[in-house]
From TrEMBL:
GO terms for molecular function: G protein-coupled olfactory receptor activity. GO terms for cellular component: plasma membrane. InterPro entries: 7TM_GPCR_serpentine_rcpt_Str. PANTHER family: 7-TRANSMEMBRANE DOMAIN RECEPTOR C.ELEGANS, SEVEN TM RECEPTOR. This is Seven TM Receptor.
């Protein structure tokens, strides 16, 4: 998720013509790539040392797994948190892990929102400027603006929001039940849906896609008509 934060920083640098854009074109690109890498290492560290399975979590989830999925807890590999222990209150290890993960999530979301907003403002200025020039330039800037809005909402809705809700529900000891499985579905949908805003909203890309899809279909139909079975 830190990768998407870096992606929006890059988009802002491109749109605004920032002098920092050149940091993505030389050896400093490696430094930018260390941001998501570091986030992934920290996330893995927290998972391994703070959210590993134990007997208390096994006892807490075994009935749920058996009743809803017909799985035995011994046959399931998982990572998770069980903050409120009946014997000794809040588990400090789990609390540290969940707090750190929520912090990483919020930093990623805030970075996306801040730089997406900056992009919107820059593109709005372009749209106002484009109105003084050709209709084609004005139309293109509007298309890019709406594509950027949509591409901002997709990762927030499909990735950040579901995972944040899942983490917060754990902290608040709210049982989401089978609904929690939807997080895996929404995350899996993201790579497939992310390119669509640009492809569908920007007219030239849309026409190119329709042409690429329709041409083989038309040829197939023509072959069938020319050579009926």
């Amino acid at each position: 998720m830190a990768f998407f934060a870096v992606q929006f920083i890059y988009r802002y640098f491109v749109v605004s013509g920032s002098i920092y854009l050149k940091t993505f074109n030389d050896w400093r690109l490696v430094l930018w790539m260390t941001v998501p890498l570091t986030g992934g290492v920290i996330w893995g560290f927290l998972t391994y040392f703070c959210l590993y399975p134990d007997e208390n979590i096994d006892n807490a989830i075994k009935t749920f797994l058996l009743e809803n999925f017909d799985w035995k807890v011994e046959d399931v590999s998982y990572v998770g948190s069980y903050l409120y222990r009946m014997n000794y209150g809040i588990d400090l290890r789990n609390l540290i892990g969940m707090t750190a993960m929520l912090t990483i999530m919020m930093l990623s979301i805030l970075t996306i929102i801040i730089f997406a907003t900056k992009c919107f403002l820059e593109i709005k200025n372009y749209v106002k400027t484009a109105q003084k020039f050709s209709k084609k330039l004005n139309s293109l800037q509007n298309q890019l603006f709406y594509a950027l809005v949509t591409q901002t909402l997709i990762p927030i809705i499909l990735m950040h929001l579901p995972v944040t809700i899942l983490l917060i529900s754990t902290v608040l000891s709210i049982d989401l039940g089978q609904t929690s499985v939807l997080v895996s579905v929404t995350i899996a949908l993201f790579p497939a849906l992310d390119p669509f805003p640009v492809v569908l909203i920007v007219k030239h890309y849309r026409f190119a896609m329709m042409s690429a899809v329709s041409t083989p279909v038309v040829k197939f139909i023509q072959r069938r008509l020319d050579n009926p079975v």
